[in-house]
Design goal:
The chain is 43% helix and 12% strand. It is α/β, with parallel strands linked by helices and 496 residues long.
């Protein structure tokens, strides 16, 4: 008997987040939407993650309008988003009413499937968002962020799945953001969840960076996985995802099928094959990197870090940073590396490389060490905790971080309403809440319309001609900038 495997297509969100630093303009996606809508996917991931940030920071585009547009263009599809639990789409915890309001407005604007995760796998940080999704009558998908450490075990992941099901999760997502999920653990975890909790739907999300995860998807399917995430081939591999067409071909001759329309897949492939070259300037240099098994840096973090360091003339420091990341991760209690923990750990690793270990500590990393993002699976390095304590002038906590927050919705409404260009909607209040340092500028320029940062080959050639012959040797100090939570951290060092 043939079993149908559902497919979540991620080309409209995580694919370009991982491959081209989340810069793809909406106008470069709309032409593929009809074919995506008719191809037969279980769901289409098109919002959440870092897209919200990128829309207002780089593209002068209203993220809510993007969601409404996708809803119109994909009428037959379940739209899916990635939601960071109590962090929503920002980089801090929000008070419970803000979480409720964000989920409510997302559902109203067209979202169907909410993949809810927490960067630390702390169930307390997912509970409010999960309840809000259930209240809105939408699909609540509880998420396990996969990582590897001496403390992470198959049994631990199975237990976490049970906690998410107790919260009302309609499905469980096994999220492998750094391509760490090898075939046998994929099989063991999926089978363990199925054997323990019965016929619960399991979705498996893998990046492709290490080159092993297409096999992992196969093993997960053999163990009972119901849905897997892929990206159309012209926007796949590297720090991105396994190709949709490769999954289809892999299942030929087996007892599994996707029932995807091959003619539609070809059209989707060709559309993005034509679009991708415009974003060459943002392309990740990574193709296959098995060092990720040591550094554990996820795809989106890697491409953005590379882009950021190259912009500052510091691309040669990436290897040092990658070696420092797992050391910082261990000091923090082995959190999975996914937004925002990936940015927090990654930024601290950059500072450690440039300035010496913990000579400069970001406020966000201090909060992570003191428990203000939640609990990690492991014990935090007490020496680093004390450094954080001395710097932040705050005591460590063990309660759910959001329990310490006071109601903030009315204040956010008042503050957003004072901004030039605010339209008075709850959606604008939420945009301001997510990115208070970026939203004011976006509101001012929103009427100018979206901006496409992609460049045609002809435009790139003209820029190259204009700058050729003008290069000079650079001397003196260099300043590195790392963006975190809407704020730029700068460190200036002398050149060797």
């Amino acid at each position: 008997m043939t079993r149908t495997i559902g497919v979540t297509e991620v080309v409209l969100r995580d694919a370009h987040q991982s491959l081209i630093a989340i810069r793809m303009a909406m106008e470069d996606m709309v032409g593929a939407c009809e074919d995506i809508d008719q191809a037969g996917y279980w769901s289409v991931e098109c919002w959440g993650g870092a897209t919200y940030d990128a829309c207002i920071r780089y593209l002068n585009e209203d993220p809510w309008e993007r969601l409404r547009t996708f809803r119109k263009l994909l009428p037959n599809s379940k739209l899916q988003m990635l939601l960071r639990g109590q962090n929503l789409l920002g980089y801090r915890h929000y008070e419970d009413m803000v979480v409720d309001k964000f989920v409510e407005k997302s559902a109203e604007n067209g979202m169907d499937v909410f993949r809810v995760f927490d960067a630390l796998n702390d169930p307390r940080n997912m509970a409010q968002a999960m309840a809000a999704v259930k209240k809105a009558g939408k699909h609540a998908q509880g998420t396990i962020c996969y990582t590897i450490s001496p403390l992470h075990t198959t049994e631990g992941y199975i237990k976490l799945a049970g906690q998410l099901l107790d919260m009302g999760a309609e499905s469980i997502a096994l999220k492998d953001m750094a391509a760490l999920l090898q075939p046998q653990p994929a099989y063991d975890i999926v089978k363990g969840i199925k054997d323990t909790y019965g016929d619960v739907q399991i979705n498996v999300h893998c990046h492709a960076t290490t080159g092993v995860t297409l096999v992992s998807l196969m093993k997960a399917i053999e163990a009972g996985a119901d849905v897997v995430d892929t990206s159309i081939s012209s926007m796949s591999l590297g720090p991105g995802h396994n190709p949709t067409e490769s999954l289809v071909a892999m299942l030929e001759g087996t007892e599994y099928t996707t029932n995807l329309d091959p003619a539609r897949l070809i059209k989707i492939r060709d559309h993005f094959a034509a679009v991708r070259p415009k974003y060459k300037a943002f392309e990740s240099a990574t193709l296959v990197d098995t060092d990720i098994f040591s550094s554990q840096i996820p795809g989106g973090m890697l491409s953005n870090m590379e882009s950021q360091l190259k912009q500052q003339g510091a691309g040669d420091r990436i290897k040092e940073v990658m070696e420092e990341v797992p050391l910082v991760k261990a000091d923090a209690g082995h959190p999975p590396l996914v937004t925002p923990s990936s940015q927090i750990v990654g930024t601290q690793a950059v500072f450690n490389v440039l300035m010496g270990r913990y000579k400069v500590m970001t406020g966000e990393f201090a909060d992570l060490m003191l428990g203000y993002y939640g609990e990690c699976i492991g014990e935090r390095n007490p020496e680093v905790v004390e450094i954080a304590h001395q710097q932040a002038k705050k005591e460590p906590i063990t309660v759910r971080p959001a329990d310490l927050l006071t109601p903030e919705w009315d204040t956010l409404v008042s503050d957003a309403g004072k901004l030039e260009g605010d339209n008075g909607s709850d959606e604008d209040v939420l945009t301001y809440a997510m990115f208070p340092s970026v939203a004011p500028g976006f509101f001012k320029t929103r009427d100018e319309g979206p901006k496409n940062v992609g460049k045609t080959p002809e435009q790139l050639d003209k820029e190259k001609e204009a700058t050729s012959g003008n290069s000079q040797a650079v001397t003196g100090p260099i300043t590195y900038k790392v963006s975190l939570g809407g704020r730029d951290h700068s460190v200036t060092v002398e050149r060797a």
